[in-house]
Amino acid sequence: MRKILMGVILTFSIFTLAFAFNFLNGSFEVANDIWQSPKFEFPSCGISDITMSTSSVIILSKDGELDVYSYDGTLKNYWSLWNVKNVESTATHAIPYFSGMSVANDEIFVAYSTRGYINKEEKKGNTYYVDIESRKKNQNILVFNLSGKLTNKFGDLEYPTDIKIFNSKIYVTDGTKDEVLIYNMSGKILQKFKMPIYKVDSPKKADVFLSKNEYYLVHHPESLTVLSNGIYVVGNDGVGRNFLYKFDQSGRILKKIQVSGDKIFTFAKNLWVSAEKGGFVVYDENLNELGTVQKIQKMKIESGLLAYHKKNGKILVAVSSSLALPNKSIQFFYWKPEK
Question: Quick one: DSSP state of residue 19?
Fold first, then answer.
């Protein structure tokens, strides 16, 4: 009986792996009609995030420049969210970190954090300075239209790490407050919940402690994505381990697994988590591992940034990666679902 059972399990495992390999590797083709690998004026800065709308590819660089391209590679617009040259002293002024963005209805939602102080808010050309001296004015989500006009700002966050939009709701993770926050599209807070905190027996294991004799380990949110059946968050325990959580809408933990990467995306009804050594590890909605994508076509994936959009009846996938300039260029592919 045991041999039969083991045979059934082995057969099922082989079938699952074969299906995952076919699904993950047999569905991509280079989008030759789409421009490839944009060139940056300052390529050393790298890409913080990429996303796509009906008419545009939007790229957020790590130094806070937003570039809006058409699909033929024409640079339609760009503007700087920050200009370090205009900061007199990095010791007394804030240098922002732009952690992510999301697009809905041709509006760009950008999440950022700052460390330091700025005395006032002003606009010089296309540069925005944000006052963080007053907590009431610490609005960490900036909303722009595709022309670069600032249309809204909201959020009282300390260190937003990711932002996603799903079903007309905005989901944001705060890596300092260790919270997941949910807003409506106007920026009104609807709900929030805390990341899990675990009691440990030694301060050497703890990232935070709440009292002299009690030590606790908190999982700081690094990245998130949302599907109809759950909110998925990658949390870091502060000592080098990453965990993927599945929450319901109220913040109740449905499942937790350990993963190697800290960036998570949804694609083809599955969860794609960046792998520590490059590529993506793919999971289903119940956090069962399906397989690893190390290469798409002949391009080695190193950076782990992914976006997709339906265009002309096809699913266009953008992957940020390059052997020569990791995390500084983009390749486009069409994905065909397996029949």
Answer: H
Strand pairing partners for 189? 183
Segment 146-174 mean pLDDT: 90
- Quick: pLDDT tens for 258-284: 998 888 999 888 999 988 777 789 999
What is the DSSP code (8-state) at residue 18?
H
Q: Which of 109, 104, 87 is nearest to 96 (CA)?
A: 87
Give the strand pairing for 139-145 and 107-113.
antiparallel
Q: What is the DSSP letter of 249?
A: T
Is residue 11 predicted with pLDDT exceeding 90? Answer: no
Are the beta carbons of 307 and 52 closer than 8 angstroms?
yes
- As a CATH number, domain 2-335 is 2.120.10.30
Lay out the sheet containing 220-227: strands in order across.
220-227, 230-236, 242-247, 253-259
What is residue 296's predicted lDDT score, i.e. its pLDDT? 65
Task: Tell me if the pTM is above 0.70.
Answer: yes
Cα–Cα dist 122/256, whole Å = 44
Instruction: Assign 182 a pLDDT band (cuts: 50, 70, 90).
Output: very high
pLDDT at 47 > cutoff 80: no
Q: How far is CA 326 from CA 101, 262, 300, 303, 305, in A?
A: 20, 17, 10, 6, 11
Measured between alpha carbons, how far is residue 100 from residues 24, 58, 161, 263 in Å? 26, 11, 7, 11
The partner residues of 211 in beta bridges, in order of sequence, read 214
Residue 56 has which token pair?
């545009």
Contacts of 230 (CB under 8 A, 6+ apart): 246, 247, 248, 254, 285
Token pair belonging to 334: 């069409």
* Euclidean distance between CA atoms 35 and 21, whole angstroms: 28
Token pair of 244 as six digits: 């993927």
- When pLDDT is averaged across residues 135-147 and rounded to a whole number, the result is 73
CB 97 within 8 A of CB 81: no
CA–CA dist 89, 98 (Å, integer): 19
* Tokens 């030694």 found at: 202
Under a CB-based contact definition with an 8 Å cutoff, are residues 141 and 110 in contact? yes
**Torsions phi, psi for 251 (to 5 deg):** 95, 5
> What's the rounded Cα separation, in Å, for the pair 328 and 339?
34
